[in-house]
Amino acid sequence: MAKISKIKPNDIANGQGINVSVWFQGCPHHCKGCFNPETWDFNRGEEFTEVHINEIFKHIDKDGIKRNLSILGGEALCEQNVIGVIDLCKKFKEKYPDKKILIWTGYTYEDLNKDQRSVLPYIDILVDGKFEINKKDISLKMRGSSNQRIIDVKESLKQNKIIKIK
Fold first, then answer.
1. Rounded to whole angstroms, what are the CA distances from 155 to 37, 59, 82, 122, 124?
2. Where are the beta strands (DSSP E) in the chain?
3. Which secondary-structure segment (H or E) carries 53?
4. Under 8 Å between Cβ of 108 and 132
5. For residues 51 and 60, what is the distance between their CA atoms, to the nearest angstrom?
6. Are 77 and 105 in contact (CB under 8 A)?
7. 62 — phi, psi (to 5°)?
């Protein structure tokens, strides 16, 4: 059962422009130097439900400000959260087909399992790879360490190879 840690309605730090950011709770990676270790514990947070989806939707165009959706963690694509993330992404794209969905994951694109890969048709950008403290670089956009990649998912699926965004 997916759990979330928090929803931030006006996030400018995670994504492009203004985003509604959702932090899923629980992470198996426990990266040294993680900026969000409070999201590691699978016993914290609250069960992700339709109430949360409705709250996210309520904020997307609030006050005439157009927002995209950023999904972070913890680990959004771990086995405990992935079904809830897929459900959110599917409903979001049905309601907002022109808005972007961005997901951050410690898994690499190449290592995504069948369940994790099933979210790809719904998302636009995947930031993949574990945070590595010895490769930390605060000058990078949308990622914390140089091993992490910003992937254009639509183009990657279309060309059947990883297309990185600089």
1. 32, 28, 22, 13, 9
2. 3-11, 19-24, 46-47, 68-72, 101-104, 125-128, 149-152
3. helix 50-60
4. no
5. 15
6. yes
7. -60, 135
Q: φ, ψ for residue 104 (rounded to 5)?
A: -105, 135
Structure tokens of 137? Answer: 């670089």
Residue type, 116: Q
- State pTM to two decimals: 0.96
Residue 55, both tokens: 């709250």
Q: Express each pLDDT in 129-142 by its tens digit.
A: 999 999 999 999 99
What are 39-84's pLDDT values in tens digits? Answer: 999 999 999 999 999 999 999 989 888 899 999 999 999 999 999 9
Please, are residues 102 and 68 in contact by the beta-carbon 8 Å criterion?
A: yes
The span from the CA of 19 to the CA of 21, in Å, is 6
Which residues, in sequence order, are bridge partners of residue 6?
23
Task: Name the 3-class secondary structure at 60.
Answer: helix
Read off the tokens for 124. 């636009």
